[in-house]
Amino acid sequence: MNQITRERLFGFRHAFDDRVTMVLTLAALILFLLAPLLIFIATRATNSPPDKRKELWDRYRSWIWVAAFILIPILAGAFWTILAVATLSFLCYREYARITGLFRERTISLIVVIGILFITFAALDNWYRLFVASFPLTVALIATGGLIPDQPKGYIQRVGLGVLGFALFGSALGNLGYMANDWNYRPILLLIIFAVELNDIFAYICGHLFGHRKFVPNTSPNKTVGGALGAIALTAPLFALGAHFVWFDTALDTPVRLLGFGVIVSIVGQFGDLMLSSIKRDLGLKDTAKLIPGHGGILDRFDSLILVAPAVFHYVNYFVGFAAGQPQQIFSGWGT
Amino acid sequence: MGNVMEPWKLEPARDTGLTPGERFRSVRRESGLLEGLAHQACFLLLRTYFAIAHRLTIEGRDKLPAHGPFVVAANHCSHLDALALGAALTPRHRERAFPIAAGDVFFQSGVTSTFSAIMLNALPMWRKNCGPHALADLRRKLQEEKAIFIIFPEGGRSRTGSMMPFKHGLGMLVAETNVPVVPCGLAGTFEALPPHRKLPRPVAIKLIIGDTLEFASTANDRTGWSQIAQGVESAVRNLATQ
Question: What average pLDDT does the segment A211-220 reach?
């Protein structure tokens, strides 16, 4: 492992080398300092009932934990970032398996876990070919593992659910981990996560302000066309501005490509939200778990990020690419 | 390998919507991949421990039904009892085996309930104010999940080593069902770790498994429960004094 790789994986001294990282981290800190004041004023002004207030404070406290879970590994180094993404994959899959009942199929779950470990290793190793191979090979393994009980009844369900789970939480989320192979991964990841979370908030606020027409009443009755369009209108230019600094002077850095990028992040983020709503409605659940006070489960919090990860990865990969100039096969290529 | 014999159902875990702390204390708890591995690892260790420290001998192991649901009922005078019975089950059984443990001992604090749930797969029984619904929940779990319960119908550890009369709880679980009860007699656990001792002595332990009993035609009422308690009690007494 050479010096550059070691610095990327563990070099926390480089945390604020990029100005975008600095700006986004500061923005997060300021938001966390201002939020108690805003909650205090808002609950006083509207005279909201105690349970509503408690929920808001619960949400605030949980957000601090969630933000720490995201920020600390990203700032600390690519190694920790990739491990954090793997943890997120496992937690999301666990919740998904429990709400769908797939957790009772131990063989399938074990294969999904192995698949996630492979993707994680591929990301840590910066081995793109293994990263690409992980998806089809794990799918093949799941289809094979489904045969083990020798019970055709339910084969399609258990294998189908296993493949969907791996595709969403192993493969799609795994793209976030692979991005950490870029020397400049910190602002990239922070920008994506920031934009996706803001996008949720924009959709919520715009929906309240000028949402009249229901968007998909059967899937998510509170979503409105106004909210969806408002979120695109606000998120896309903000993201484009951030992306302009992150991918400064690259093939991506044209107004059309940057704005298109922002629109994709906003739309796909909202689709991720709707996807989880559909899954929950299909199962007749309100939340996926009761793990994060005020939010519900891990999936309830990270739903919007799931589909955005592969969309962003391949948009950037098409124009610029990741990890340019970084050594490949850090561990597996030892001695070659 | 999951539900080998049952058709596939898109059904959330029965403990969905509980916080982690509530879940550990709930009889609705269903183990996942990691917890399943933890139970297996724990019982493998216990098995080794009992073989080395207590030269555990098991008689009549072939009398255990091939799969759940069934109830293992034994005499109780030591904390080693449930562990010894757990260690006697096959790995396939262990996946669905739940020792029913005293809530006030094993599920009082967060640490003990986490340990009891993750390592032993124990379910709490609250001795002070356990309503009839607690037993109804266990009765349902036994049948729906094809579970294996390890229970001590005396309702607590005997302080003298001699058996106490069996309580009605066992009858409330199995009356009017085809769920077999496996009577078991444990000898040596009192000498190894009586209630007043903190650490076990390396005394030999013997477990004798008896013929299964069924109570499909015993009424699910006070008289029936009493009959079941007496029937299983005398079977266990015979085995324990062999």
Answer: 89
Q: What are phi and psi of B104, to 5 degrees?
A: -75, -10
- Other residues' Cβ atoms within 10 Å of the Cβ of residue A43: 16
Write down the ipTM of this complex: 0.83
Sketch the domain layout of chain B as residue ranges.
Answer: 20-240
Q: Do B17 and A289 touch (CB under 8 A)?
A: yes
Among candidates B12, B19, B20 on the partner chain, residue whose Cβ is nearest the Cβ of A99: B12
Q: Is A138's pLDDT higher than 70? A: yes
By CA distance, what is A291's nearest residue in B? Answer: B19
User: Are the beta carbons of A99 and B16 separated by less than 8 Å?
Assistant: yes
Touching B: A residues 137-156, CB under 8 Å: 148-149, 151, 153-154
Nearest partner of B59 among B216, B174, B205, B229, judged by Cα: B205
Tell me which chain B residues have a C-beta less than 8 angstroms from the C-beta of A294. none
B1-4: long-range pairs with CB below 8 Å, 24+: B1/A106, B1/A107, B1/A148, B1/A149, B2/A104, B2/A105, B2/A106, B2/A107, B2/A108, B2/A149, B2/A158, B3/A104, B3/A105, B4/A149, B4/A151
CB–CB of A82/A123 below 8 Å?
A: yes
**pLDDT above 70: residue B130:** no
CA within 13 Å, CB half, B2: 25
CB contact under 8 A, B32 and A109: yes
Of A103, A108, A157, the CB nearest to B10: A157
- pLDDT tens digits, A228-246: 999 999 999 999 999 999 9
Q: Which among A78, A65, A79 has a CA at the least distance from the CA of A186? A: A78
What whole-number percentage of chain B has pLDDT above 70? 95
- Residue A63 contacts residue A69 (beta carbons within 8 Å): no
Asked whether the beta carbons of B214 and B180 are under 8 A apart, the reply is: yes
**Fold of the B20-240 domain:** Glycerol-3-phosphate (1)-acyltransferase (3.40.1130)
Contact B121, B229 (CB under 8 A): no
**C-alpha pair distances (Å), A20 with each of A73, A184, A192, A249:** 17, 10, 12, 15
Among B3, B11, B22, B33, the residue to mutate for chain A (most A Cβ within 10 A):
B33
